[in-house]
Inverse folding.
């Protein structure tokens, strides 16, 4: 049962602080966006290395290269190639989490998955060539709403386990409740707060995007859960009280980023 306990208060406060840092960095400028996300990406890579009990610095240097779009335009064809690789890795990881294998996935695959996903996150901010905060805000808003309501509804009404071996706390009721309330909130914002995204996207597109990213967010959570279970740890770290580490908090965004970019790209170039 979901009750207002000290642990829930701490979880809420730390979650709000994390979200404020993210939102403000996205809103102020492309430089604040790049700085904060580079720091967060480094922390996630460090948590991943800690998780698999390995050390190395080359990923941090590779990560710097991924932030080139903040300062220079990259050829769109080059990014499409990286995006395709990112999507293929994501689909491989989905196959892995639902397979019956107990073998750990190669470290290079997880590292590549994280690096490509960070590249996708950065490029979402530049999906219209110049930096725009709206697309990246929408991504984080959808993921945050879905996670929050899934947690609350699952705690209150959760009975039917979705993925018992992968993530015992995930329930069908939590998933349906999270998706339902996220769609409702998105519709309210669309119709009652003008000029947020009504001039850019249609309501049917926004609802499709919301449902799609809610599902990919769940898959990202499950991937992180299986990685942690195979390494016999509960959280990637304890840097965010009540949530675990930044990898635990960003797993849904990390997995969803390339799908989000792909959907926006197709809608912008081939549908609208």
């Amino acid at each position: 049962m979901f009750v207002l306990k000290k642990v829930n208060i701490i979880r809420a406060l730390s979650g709000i602080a994390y979200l404020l840092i993210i939102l403000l960095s996205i809103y102020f400028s492309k430089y604040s966006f790049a700085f904060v996300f580079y720091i967060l990406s480094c922390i996630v890579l460090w948590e991943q290395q800690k998780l698999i009990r390995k050390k190395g610095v080359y990923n941090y240097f590779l990560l710097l290269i991924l932030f080139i779009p903040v300062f220079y335009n990259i050829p769109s064809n080059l990014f499409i190639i990286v995006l395709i690789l990112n999507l293929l890795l994501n689909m491989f990881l989905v196959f892995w989490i639902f397979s019956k294998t107990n073998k750990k996935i190669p470290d290079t695959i997880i590292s590549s998955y994280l690096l490509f996903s960070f590249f996708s996150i950065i490029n979402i901010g530049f999906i219209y060539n110049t930096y725009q905060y709206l697309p990246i805000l929408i991504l984080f808003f959808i993921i945050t709403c879905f996670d929050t309501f899934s947690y609350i509804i699952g705690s209150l009404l959760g009975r039917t386990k979705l993925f018992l071996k992968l993530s015992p706390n995930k329930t069908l009721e939590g998933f349906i409740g999270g998706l339902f309330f996220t769609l409702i909130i998105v519709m309210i914002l669309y119709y009652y707060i003008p000029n947020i995204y009504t001039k850019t996207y249609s309501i049917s597109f926004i609802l499709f995007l919301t449902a799609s990213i809610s599902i990919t967010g769940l898959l990202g959570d499950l991937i992180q859960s299986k990685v942690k279970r195979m390494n016999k740890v509960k959280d990637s770290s304890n840097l965010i009280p009540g949530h675990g580490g930044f990898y635990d908090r960003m797993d849904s965004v990390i997995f969803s980023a390339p799908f989000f970019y792909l959907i926006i790209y197709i809608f912008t170039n081939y549908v609208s």
Observations:
- Residues 6-271 form one domain.
- The first helix runs from residue 6 to 28.
